[in-house]
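Tokens for chain A. Residues wanted.
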């Protein structure tokens, strides 16, 4: 991709400042391109930051999970340990 000036202000500045000397024109173009990139990135960052600040995020309640342990049956006697949300209704509980 060939670097080129995107903003009309910088295109106008380049046309006004170029002198027909190749090294001078290249130097001016490179400097204007660098400054333009910095300005565009700054404008994008500030607009995105403003948009993010304007969005209201819902506040979620911190809820304590429910820990339950069911004693194991059979030869091994392995217990079942469950971690669930308080609003979860299990069909096995009969509730």
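Reply:
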């Amino acid at each position: 991709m060939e670097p080129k000036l995107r903003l009309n202000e910088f295109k106008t500045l380049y046309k006004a400042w170029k002198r027909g000397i190749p090294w001078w024109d290249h130097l001016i173009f490179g400097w204007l391109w660098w400054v333009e990139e910095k300005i565009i990135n700054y404008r994008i960052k500030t607009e995105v930051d403003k948009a993010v600040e304007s969005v209201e995020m819902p506040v979620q309640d911190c809820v304590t999970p429910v820990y339950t342990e069911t004693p194991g049956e059979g030869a091994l006697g392995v217990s079942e340990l469950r971690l669930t949300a308080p609003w979860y209704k299990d069909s096995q509980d009969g509730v």
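The beta strands are 66-70, 80-84. The first helix runs from residue 8 to 17.
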